[in-house]
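Q: I'm writing up a methods section and want to include an example of the input and output format. Could you take the sequence below and give the corresponding predicted structure tokens, formatted cleanly so I can copy it straight into the document?
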Amino acid sequence: MDETIVSTRYWHQLGDGQLQCDLCPRHCRLQEGQRGLCYVRQRLGDEVKLVSYGRSSGFCVDPIEKKPLNHFYPGSGVLSFGTAGCNLACKFCQNWDTTKSREMDSMADRASPRQLAQAALEMDCRSIAFTYNDPIIFMEYAVDVAAACAEHDIKTVAVTAGYIDPEPRIEFFKAVNAANVDLKAFTERFYYKVCGAHLAPVLETLQYIKHETDTWLELTTLLIPGENDSPQELDAMTRWVVQHLGPDVPMHFTAFHPDWKMRDIERTPAATLSRAREIARSNGVRYAYTGNVRDPQGGSTWCHNCGELLIERDWHRLGRWGLDSQGSCASCGANLPGHFAGVPEQLAAGPVRVRFS
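A: Here is the clean output for your methods example:
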């Protein structure tokens, strides 16, 4: 019996004999042996199965700030991993060597949920992150890892595009403690032409996470010159976030570098990120950040009430800590939304590779 192949729940049979996957809005229709666009969900007999359970392209320990999450146990270690495949087709994918991989051999590392939870405990990681590719496509594995982690009070983090159907969305986000959702743009044109997806399901997921779960939420937008970085689009996006999610959801604006099918576009200028941050702040976003550039001002956390520096960041390294023991501003007492556990010990800024025997 191959333990990397497991049954799934979210599919149904069509009148023509095909099976439709109901995990994400793509709704792949599968004949015998056929895989969905994600590559890891396959029709085998009269079921749609996950064929990558327990398999990964690699495990490493990162600072939580690399996910990026700035309000979820800052300075803590996170055991990170991903698999092959993805349910989007982003032309700018910066992990394309694994997300677009069609070779199962690229997932040479294996670990059971209990092994992962134990490793996080032994390496003093406060959380495990499903990242590098979208964990929605290996949902069954992620949910089992989250359950094993909960037994040891290890948190779980999903780095995701949020492209998931309503029913599995309930199970998935009930399992994880925090999510950074890639809000890739704020136009249907971009989602359809560049990502092969649609904007509306992502906005529905964001509202669901914020208003119907206890999952901590942060957003990331990779700004691509000439594609999704206009002041008008950023204004509309950040106004929507404040209106529908509230002012306390952190937003990260990160720099693009040429990759995969968009190598002819230049890197994002630092000034574009700073402008996006200022647009967000002017529209009421209290915690707007820049990323993938060295910008201590834009990477640090500031009190929305008195303007004091609360968490100093230089890349992923922390400096001054201006929070009291309750996670509030030590100067004025204003609450900082998120999850905090006192002054953290500083981790190495780079990833630490983890091997399982």
